[in-house]
Automatic annotation (TrEMBL):
This is PREDICTED: rust resistance kinase Lr10. Residues 302-588 form the Protein kinase domain. The keyword Signal applies. Gene3D superfamilies: Phosphorylase Kinase, domain 1, Transferase(Phosphotransferase) domain 1. The keyword Membrane applies. It holds the Pfam family GUB_WAK_bind. ATP binds at residue 330. GO terms for cellular component: membrane.
Length: 618
């Protein structure tokens, strides 16, 4: 196949993963080469720089560890496990394939999505207008609608109405062959993609391509960066010469440099407080969302005529693009954090595409005017359906409410584990769950969100964030556990409890504590073998409610370590209710816990309008 010799292959520069000190690297290099080769399945002679996880620790390079699972050699890339097909030590390449793809079975699809990609799979409700750009895959996939494959990268403006991106993939297919038959594309996917490693690495490296802020790290995909390590075989006199030049330059240019820095800092005082936003946007020039001018926003909204709602971070208006597409435009209020709320939303939601996360179409930054342009959600937010007592409400069916809850859980799980950076939302509540025309839930409002490396189990916050009634207790009490993604799990548990019971867990504005705390009451009912009598529910609906309530009880455990991950929560919601074990009884406060005298972080300051709280640093 041409795919084997394609000059336009996407290469992952695995050398980025091997940034170590020169002493560590040289030691590993000399010791790792003398180990005997390993084998797993059809892959023989696995040798330096690669190693199996069962090999001695002194073999190979630790960053190039492969695993042997079910007699298959497996390469771990982010959260995906890819099957290794071959390793070529002459060309320094390794070929891998997505395990979801099967040879001679065009209905098989990639299990994982990669970015950057050169193919996107799209599920459409109707035939796309520009059909020449797509390859029809409906006959193979067996989709109820229209299923297409599109070659090349995809921006928001490329996605046609009625279509959604199901998954993305990368192949070593030539560009001139990318518009062939789907059978040909599938064969290229089954062939796999090649990764290249650099054999002679050293201390010095440089990164090129897109990077978040001034630090170069793989926040999109390893192949976006190429680390160039140069071996410096300099003579001793050259080192002394460079050292002398450095010392001289330090004296000659030191004073002018200090003066220049002081002048720069003085001038910065006269710049707009939103200059940090412009700096951020200049660094992130390859964002897919479109930048609109303020005059464009006024035209879209007919001078802000139709107001959809108002929250703690701004006002939302209905707008319409020139293409006829309806959008919701959130104009942010005055920032108290140098535009950090705007940066949070663009930096998080601007980089992700998921069916259960609201799509950022574009943004506006012009002086003090800052706006975010989202897809319009005709059914509004979830809060107006949870507490409704009208039987005609479309979400009055418990099964439909369960489907919404499952969609929200999948969206949160994607934020935690589906991206190259871990995204913590910190403000999950009914008001921030939007519903499209089919009542598919979308997570929204990322103004409080934070990005962290996926290997960070505990995160640092300078101030707690969230909404009363949904804030995890570790944000108030530091001794019960560190702040992590489990804070979002707690918020989802409180949301799930309200969705299952169709009532608020407690009124945050009520000062007395004599009212019944619903989660405790629900725990007692189920522990005694009783059902919750919420309405005229069928037996099937009672099982659905019980499943949602028990899963919620697990999520709202006081200690973060007792809560499950979102992946486990999804398993609970998708499994049988008979298999669910009852957790410990939830506590209304840490004082109710055994030995529960816990040190508080600080006193919260809350706004009754939004019940949004902020606290001083931990």
């Amino acid at each position: 196949m041409e795919t084997q010799t394609s000059s336009s292959s996407w290469f992952l520069i695995l050398s980025l993963l091997a940034i170590t000190s020169s002493s560590e690297y040289s030691n590993e290099k000399t010791i790792g080469r003398v180990c005997p080769p390993s084998s797993c399945g059809s892959i023989r002679n696995i040798s330096y720089p690669f190693r199996l996880n069962s090999d001695p620790t002194n073999c190979g390079v630790s960053f190039y560890t492969l695993s042997c699972e079910n007699n298959l050699t497996v390469l771990n890339l982010y959260s995906g496990k890819y099957t290794v097909l071959s390793i070529n030590y002459d060309s320094n390449t390794i070929r891998a394939v997505d395990p979801g793809l099967r040879k001679n079975d065009c209905s098989s699809l990639p299990r994982y999505s990669l970015s950057p990609y050169n193919f996107s799979f799209e599920d459409c409700q109707r035939v796309p207008a520009n059909l020449s750009l797509y390859v029809d895959a409906s006959s193979c996939i067996g989709s109820r609608g229209y299923y297409y494959v599109k070659a090349g990268t995809l921006t928001t403006s490329d996605l046609e109405d009625g279509c959604r991106v199901d998954r993305t993939a990368i192949t070593t297919l030539n560009e001139k062959d990318q518009n062939g038959s789907y059978q040909h594309i599938h064969e290229a996917l089954v062939f796999g993609f090649e990764l290249e490693w650099r054999p002679d690495l050293y201390m010095r490296y440089s990164c090129r391509g897109w990077s978040f802020s001034s630090t170069c790290y793989p926040n999109r995909f390893i192949g976006f960066f190429q680390s160039v390590f140069e071996y410096m075989d300099a003579q001793r006199y050259a080192v002394l010469f460079i050292l002398g030049v450095f010392v001289l330059a330090r004296f000659v240019f030191g004073l002018p440099f200090v003066i220049a820095v002081l002048v720069y800092k003085w001038r910065r005082r006269h710049l707009s407080m939103y200059s940090s936003i412009e700096e951020f946007l200049q660094n992130e020039q390859n964002f897919a969302p479109i930048r609109y001018s303020y005059s464009d926003v006024k035209k879209m909204t007919s001078k802000f005529r139709e107001k959809l709602g108002e929250g703690g971070y701004g006002t939302v208006f209905k707008g319409k693009l020139r293409s006829g597409r309806f959008v919701a435009i959130k104009m942010l209020g005055k920032s108290k954090a140098n535009g950090q709320d705007f940066i949070n939303e663009v930096a998080t939601i601007g980089r992700i595409h998921h069916v259960n996360v609201v799509q950022l179409v574009g943004y506006c930054v012009e002086g003090s005017n800052r706006g975010l342009v989202y897809d319009f959600m005709p059914n509004g937010s979830l809060d107006k359906y949870i507490y409704s007592k009208e039987g005609s409400v479309p979400l009055s069916c418990n099964k439909k409410m369960y489907e919404v809850a499952l969609g929200v859980a999948r969206g949160i799980e994607y934020l935690h584990q589906g991206c190259d950076m871990q995204i913590l939302h910190f403000d999950i509540k009914p008001h921030n769950i939007l519903l499209d025309e089919n009542f598919v839930p979308k997570l929204s409002d990322f103004g409080l969100a934070k990005l962290y490396p996926t290997d960070n189990s505990i995160v640092n916050l300078t101030a707690a964030r969230g909404t009363m009634g949904y804030i995890a207790p570790e944000l108030f009490y530091k001794n019960i556990g560190g702040v992590s993604y489990k804070a979002d799990v707690y918020s989802f548990g409180m949301l799930l409890m309200e969705m299952g019971s169709r009532r608020k867990n407690f009124n945050a504005l009520v000062e007395h504590s004599s009212q019944v705390y619903f989660p405790s009451w629900a725990h007692e009912q189920y522990s005694e073998g009783k059902d919750l009598e919420i309405g005229d529910d069928t037996e099937e609906e009672k099982k659905i409610i019980k499943k949602m309530i028990i899963a919620a009880l697990w999520c709202i455990q006081m200690k973060p370590s007792d809560r499950p991950s979102m992946n486990k929560v999804i398993d609970m919601l998708e499994g049988d209710v008979e298999n669910l074990r009852m957790p410990n009884k939830p506590f209304l406060s840490v004082e109710e816990m055994p030995g529960g005298h816990v040190q508080e972080n600080s006193n919260p300051t809350c706004s009754n309008k939004e019940l949004t709280c902020t606290l001083s640093g931990r």
